[in-house]
Amino acid sequence: MFINECLNIKNGHLNIGGVDTLDLAAEFGTPIYVMDEQTIRKNCRVYTEAVKKYAPNSGMVLFASKALSFKGIYKIVAEENLGSDIVSSGELYTAISAGFPIERAYFHGNNKTYSDIKFGIDNKIGCFVVDNMEELDAINQIAAKKQKILLRITPGIDAHTHKAVRTGNVDSKFGTPIATGQAIEIAKYALSLPNIELAGLHCHIGSQILEYEPFILAADIMTRFIAEIKKITGYEIRELNLGGGYGVRYIEEHIGIDFDTCIKIMCDTVVKNCKENDLQIPYLIFEPGRSIVANAGITLYTIGSVKEITGFKNYVSVDGGMPDNPRYALYGSVYEAEVCGRADEPKNFECTLAGRCCESGDFIAENIKVQSCRCGDILAVLTTGAYNYSMASNYNRIPRPPIIMIKDGKPYIAVERESFEDLIKNDK
Ligand SMILES: *Cc1c(COP(=O)(O)O)cnc(C)c1O
What is the reported pTM? Predict the structure, then answer.
């Protein structure tokens, strides 16, 4: 019935993790993010089990925490034996505050500042994923002893065209491209620096990818590059991080990819290439973000107005919008929504879901179908667990919603609702 397993209908009401969404809205108010902890854990295990099965020389799964960052999530993924990909000192600080095992944290980003690097080293971060020459120099200078790093490499795959193309995406702010010869140069340079331990390579080819082919290509190109480094320098890379980007189903029409299969075909590609090129099979790392949390979350809103503009569109306005979910405004993302109290009725009302901001592009979804609805109804937008809370802002001085987690059929507050006092706390 629903694209997300944690949802079902009871007495006509939408339930998440066995809890009635109308009860959640009544208890915690709206808007709220609601997440099912069991779904997050299940998603983690799909990846950890796949790595156990298919990575012959072992490996690790990192949660790309930019998809959802708050203290509790680092605890959950640590309990599930994941590492974490962090992209700022703020994310690192949050992970540390949660007691996350920092040796399992990988520091990403194309422009880490001096203080980011210092903060990482002072806190004994496991690994830096180095983007460029300047960063190599900075780490070499700041580190007092050998610091483990991976180099972010651009394999040159455009995963977002209909067919993955090999030559796409060399033009990127991230990483160093193989095609231009710059990747081999940065590898040589890394090997020449005394405080740099070049453990391996990293690539990340995009996000919300719903096909297998780009992932196979990435695994193929990266293993060949390991062989090239060995041929030219004699040095053999022992760790390969193939990034994230595994796409999820936001709407019925999305044909999802199977994550277990995806990890398998990437591992198989690496193993085959290693055999052909007489290489040791590297320790393999995968970095899912979205696919760990997206389908575990929904956002509940209260409908304020239903405006049927005669001869034009219908607008349903809710008490949130682009501050809690900027994804439509940013990239025209698609969602499904349900009227929580009439979830068993047919969806025959076509409308645009509008937010409450003073911004005409403040939509959550355009031209979607929901059940008939009116002022006061609770509306759920589905699959909002990733890149919603983590991208939320205070635009229009709207406090960020809380995150309510469901565990064993009971809700708990994982992140409090921001208060008006929070909004002005830095104002002089
Ligand atoms: C964003 C990102 C990820 C996670 O991508 P998802 O699409 O959320 O799986 C992984 N690695 C890097 C380097 C990223 O920037």
Answer: 0.97
